[in-house]
Amino acid sequence: MTAYNRENVVWTSRIQEAFGPVVELQDEQGKSTYYQVEKEFEVAGHSYVVLRPDGSSKSDEPEILKVVAGADGELSLETIDDDDEWEEVSELYDELTFPE
Q: By its UniProt entry, which Pfam families does this protein fall under (predicted)?
């Protein structure tokens, strides 16, 4: 049984505390996009944040990013490159958002 289940979720607010309810992310070309912080949680020793583009509707798919703390404690957001991890986190978020 995987550790990515709702019983192991701890809700957090590290990104909101560090950056506020709206974060600015830049793509590879330097274009900025603003995102509303929707949810933050820890599971299986990893932290994640769910972001929704500012001004988007609830029906738009959110972005789920990994929260990583650097050696100096500074937080950064990274894409989830591992397909298995992405699938686990995405399914977990769906379970938390749309319980059966």
A: DUF1292
Q: pLDDT tens track of the chain, all 100 residues?
A: 457 888 899 999 999 999 999 999 998 899 999 999 999 999 989 999 999 988 877 767 899 999 999 989 899 999 999 999 999 999 999 888 876 6
What HEC string does 6-33 produce? HHHCEECCHHHHHHCCEEEEECCCCCEE
Task: For residue 54, give the nearest of 78, 20, 92, 97 by alpha carbon.
Answer: 20
| 93: its two tokens | 């978020």
